From TrEMBL, chain A:
GO terms for molecular function: guanyl-nucleotide exchange factor activity; translation initiation factor activity. It comes from Capronia epimyces CBS 606.96. GO terms for cellular component: cytosol; eukaryotic translation initiation factor 2B complex. This is Translation initiation factor eIF2B subunit alpha. Gene3D superfamilies: Translation initiation factor eif-2b, domain 2 (3.40.50.10470), Translation initiation factor eIF-2B, N-terminal domain (1.20.120.1070). InterPro entries: eIF2B_alpha/beta/delta (IPR051501), elF-2B_alpha_N (IPR042528), IF-2B-related (IPR000649), IF_2B-like_C (IPR042529), NagB/RpiA_transferase-like (IPR037171).
UniProtKB/TrEMBL annotation, chain B:
Residues 138-164 have a biased composition (Polar residues). This is Translation initiation factor eIF2B subunit beta. Keywords: Cytoplasm, Initiation factor, Protein biosynthesis. Signal peptide: none annotated. It comes from Capronia epimyces CBS 606.96. Belongs to the eIF-2B alpha/beta/delta subunits family.
Amino acid sequence: MNDFTWRSLWTKIGQLLSLRMVKAFSFQLFSDISLRHPASLSTPPSTPKPTPDTSPSTDFDIVAFYNDLISRDPTITPPIAAIESLTSLLASTPLTTISETLALLSTHSSKLLASQRNPIPLSAGTELFQRYLVSSFQQRPSSLASSDFTALRHHILSNSSLFVKRANEARPKIAQHALPFIKDDSTIITYGYSRAVQALLTHAAESNRSFNVIYVLPATGLSERVSKFIAALNDLSIPTATISMQALIYALASLAPSAPPPQFIIGAAAVLENGSIITELGMHQLALIAKSVSVPLHVAVESYKFVRNFPLGYGPTDLARLGVRQNVLQFGTGTPNSDPKPEAATADEGKVLTTEAEMVEITPPNLISALITENGIMSPNAVSEELIKLWF
Amino acid sequence: MAPTMPSLTPGFTTFQRVLSTESLDSSTTFLVSLLKRRQIKGSKRCAVATTLLLLRTVELTKQADSDRLIQRVSEVGKKLIEAAPHEPAVGNIVRRVLGIIRDEDEDDLVGTRTGEDGSPTSETGSDSIAALELAQSRAGSHSIPSSLSTRTAAKASPSPQRGTTRPPLMSSHTGVPGGARPVTSMFSIISHPTMRAPGVDSPTHRSGTATPQMTASGILSNLRPEVIKGIKEIIDEINAADDEISAAALEQIHPQETIVTYSSSLTVQRFLLKAASKRKFTVIHAEAYPNNHLKTHALLTGTHDTAEDEDNLPNDSFSKPLTSAGISVVMIPDSAVFAVMSRATKVVLDAHAVLTDGSLVAVSGSKAVIKAARFHRVPVLVVAPTYKLSPAYPYEPHELIEYGDAGKVLPFQDRELCTGVETGVRNPLYDFIEAGHVDLFVTNQVPAVVSAGYLYRVVREQYHDEDLQI
């Protein structure tokens, strides 16, 4: 009898305790996700983080400058545009100390990231630039160590523009590395818009490879960029077929069995530390199909798109941790045609990706055969090492 | 085969004789024809033959500065690689030798640099920003490497990976004294390793290139013996590879395990023998009909006839059968592999070549074994000496597969069986196994046991980035 009560008491205490722990844990989890600012997430611990209030004031509007860059030049990628914006920020602001410079950069980077609905590609650029500055301050040439800060600043600025120039040379190199992948009479399947893929296919066509391209269109249909891309392919007399997503497996089965095996070549907005890629919505699904029918999936991507962030999965919480909020599920009881305006948009100051055309997705690394970067062909495993090389 | 055969058909021993007597050109031609006629085959033998020929090349090259050595070695190497596209080991060895030359050359450069550090740095000492920008723009002009410019650039390049210090992120300070460090021109990711060099020491080194080669004659004569020493180390490494690999056996094979293996591989044999010295386990050995079953039988019964292997390399001859080490061995036909796989705890295989992404070329039938192992969730372990690690990417997997004597599949006297067969009888010697099917690789490199995901790192460490394309 006695024994029995003791036991029941203990189990009760145990239950209580475990319940409380779960509660505490979940609270911590939620507060983590909701309280964190998207921009501060991807900042690595090694970068010295000055407090924002010490940042010098400037009337340079980085967001407007960035948006102008993106709209003016269709070939520029978000990370490079971000770096260019930061460079002109430095150029237009009179600065006198190093810590001032770093504070300015840090506040404006977070301002820029906060202004974007999909800050992941930009964060690659801003992080890279800040890291670059810190390291070049730390290891500046001996002549500049003792000299005036203006000389140093001038030096940094001139090299920053060179950095942008260098980054733009990545694409032709990717095209060169990708050439052996494209065999005569083979079929290349692509999805989404990528400048790297465009450069790559153009280069292959110019080197007299004959190949076919299957363009998988998203459910939202042909966008302007994609139709321009296809027109460019047609100008190079590359036979191109556009299919919808649901036709993919049937299209793969319709390819001639004697032809060289088909392959996916796609681009990516960013590459995360475990080798997973950020792409347009729908790529994960296509990658699963590709894996299941053993079609290799190659990702053409410039290595400045590598982001130092390790996702733990590929769901909405992982994207939220990266600063992207989007809501695919819109439950409703109305007719499907009525198209209810999502209320979430108002709740979060328009920071939610609403249209499917701009939604993104994480495609996990085990579905990727290889990354074609300007540094050569690498497996998704090699991404983390490249990042370590860059940051430490 | 009769023991008199070796003297009649040319092979490894005749190559060794030719190498020591004939001129370099004729021994190159001889080895090329041997490779083409498959009179030297197998990764190990090809690797040793290539190393010997390159050793001879280095010995015979006149005026052996690094440029000339690299040029000669890659000339000879190219011929060999073209002669044996089915043997990646040849290319691997050529790359290794080129890497040795580059390493030694770099060491010398460091030596000269520290010696003359006083004078030419004055240029960087004044260090106007204009000079820096000039250097940078020069670096920029190199950034899309044509194959020619990389070669010259590479000469001055300190190895990107072998440096003890990791290349820091720094950018612009091109003329830092003691710049033997690989300074990346902008960002290490932006600058490909091959284009890394030219910006590095353009002020100091380029202006000084004319002088050191003339003045430092002591250093010139130093290069060749060092390189020769390095190449001889490769030969030692090849010969000791099986032993070094087997050192990992005790960690991998546990008591009472059932190991499945396939075909006749001396490396695997050694690996199992080493484990057998301490452990009791069972080996299930599939025979690999029709190309290797006789060798497998010989290996298992211990009647391995050394005379049959016309040119027994050192270490090959004294292998004893597993049964003599107290291991129970079950030999099965290839058709039973799937059936016995459910009892296996591990699969140990040899490879013909291992590619950088973790795919491998192995004796035909290996793919079936690996697929069966995957089906039954049995871990697969592949033993791969470093000379089999190839930096190539399998763009065209079917080109790596070689076809052998179809008569082994269907003897010639049974030709009437062929009547119904449309395309004839094929006998592939190798299988291409795509990446992701092997759990562990055991190499004779320092991290002896590597997972498939980390393999690229081990392969990359073997070679210099400049030599990936020969």
